[in-house]
């Protein structure tokens, strides 16, 4: 049995240039609620969280011009940036992926702004999709 044990799409991340402009589209045009907008200085981003069903859309605006999201926008423009999978045990998930030779951006989990732990799988290992693994607080 695979130990990644992903069981939910926690959120879908969308890279944007100007969070406030894009929030207006999602909130006022599409009618989605915005539960919070946060600075995440350790990742050099500002995010807006918009729940839909039992998942969320995460709008991500770079605040660090040298960071990964800024580079993504430069190369590819705005759009789908990552898919976040919720796992029960991120240490076991990363260990299992490492054993399988999967290239990881984060070999060990980072702690996010709300406390949960997360790590990114390299998009080259995941056929062009940046995959975020996310463990809820236990
Ligand atoms: Co994310």
Compose a concise summary of this entry.
With 138 residues, the protein is an alpha+beta fold. Helix content is 22%, strand content 38%.
Q: Biggest sheet: strands, sense, closure?
A: 8 strands, mixed
Question: Which runs of at least 5 residues are low in confidence (pLDDT < 50)?
Answer: none
The CATH class designation is: Alpha Beta
Could you give the count of β-strands?
8
End-to-end distance? 22 Å
Number of helices: 3
- Can you tell me the CATH topology? 2,3-Dihydroxybiphenyl 1,2-Dioxygenase, domain 1
Ions and ligands: cobalt (II) ion
Count structural domains: 1
Morphology:
globular
- Average pLDDT over all residues: 93
Q: Strands of the largest sheet, in order across it?
A: 2-3-4-1-5-8-7-6
Overall CATH architecture: Roll
**CATH H-tier superfamily:** 2,3-Dihydroxybiphenyl 1,2-Dioxygenase, domain 1
Beta-strand residue percentage: 35-45%
Secondary structure class reads alpha+beta
């Amino acid at each position: 049995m695979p130990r990644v044990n992903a069981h939910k799409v926690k959120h879908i991340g969308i890279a944007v240039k100007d969070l406030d402009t894009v929030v207006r589209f999602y909130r006022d045009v599409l009618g989605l609620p915005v539960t919070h907008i946060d600075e995440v200085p350790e990742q050099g981003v500002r995010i807006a969280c918009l729940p839909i069903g039992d998942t969320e859309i995460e709008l991500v605006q770079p605040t660090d011009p040298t960071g990964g999201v800024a580079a993504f926008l430069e190369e590819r423009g705005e759009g789908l940036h990552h898919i976040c999978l919720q796992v029960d045990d991120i240490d076991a998930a990363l260990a299992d992926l490492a054993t399988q030779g999967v290239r990881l951006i984060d070999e060990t989990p980072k702690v996010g702004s709300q406390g949960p732990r997360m790590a990114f799988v390299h998009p080259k290992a995941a056929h062009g999709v940046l995959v975020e693994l996310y463990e809820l607080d236990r």
